[in-house]
What does this fold into?
Amino acid sequence: MKTKSTDDVRSFTTMVANKQGWVLNPDEEFTDSLVDGLCVNWNRYGYFLCPCRDTEGSKEADESVICPCVYARSDVERYGHCYCALFLRPDFAAAGGQPTGIPDRRGS
It folds into this structure.
């Protein structure tokens, strides 16, 4: 497994945001902490486990919360941001929307 740098992960998150029509959270310090968490998780587990969630112990068990998680698209649409608030809907970000807690649907 090739290790990832924070620059690699920043490129990944930017690519995901662009592909999905989202934007990254404009709070650079917050976003940097999430990028750091994704980097740690990649280098620890070999996949981009959401930095806001605990591992279930295997890639197969964690599949639903590998970034971008399976809930991201509907959460961004409904709430304006994903669970960890890394990805935002462009209009939500442009209006200065502030992410709030949203329900964690993992395991439900």
